[in-house]
Design brief:
- The protein has 104 residues and is α+β, with helices and mostly antiparallel strands.
- The protein contains four helices and five strands.
- A three-stranded antiparallel sheet has the order 1-5-4.
- α2 (23-31) packs across α3.
- Residues 1-5 have low confidence and may be disordered.
Length: 104
């Protein structure tokens, strides 16, 4: 089940931005805008497909940061994942706060 709308504190924002700070993880979030099975994820680096172990590592970081959720656990390659739109929106809102002028 996807999270309800949330607010992101400084520590959560730091964790989320760290997780999103890698091109492979950004690509995974892009691919996971709709539910997909782990085995169907395809990411390349320098023109070469990323190894399954590397994909699983990056997926775990996104899961730990709460940016991606597991929809089912039918097996390592059959599990379906999806990006959590509420969490991503909360991160965007938290980041937007940095662009606002501080009250004097």
């Amino acid at each position: 089940m996807l999270a309800q709308p949330i607010s992101v504190g400084h520590a959560d924002l730091t964790c989320a931005l760290t997780a999103l700070g890698h091109p492979v993880r950004l690509e995974l979030v892009r691919q996971l805008r709709s539910p997909r099975r782990s085995k169907d994820l395809r990411v390349s680096r320098a023109g070469r497909p990323l190894a399954r172990q590397s994909l699983d590592f990056h997926l775990r970081i996104l899961l730990d940061a709460g940016l991606v959720v597991r929809l089912d656990a039918t097996g390592p390659k059959e599990s379906r994942f999806v990006a959590d739109p509420s969490r991503l929106a909360a991160v965007a809102t938290g980041l937007a706060r940095f662009g606002r002028a501080a009250p004097e």
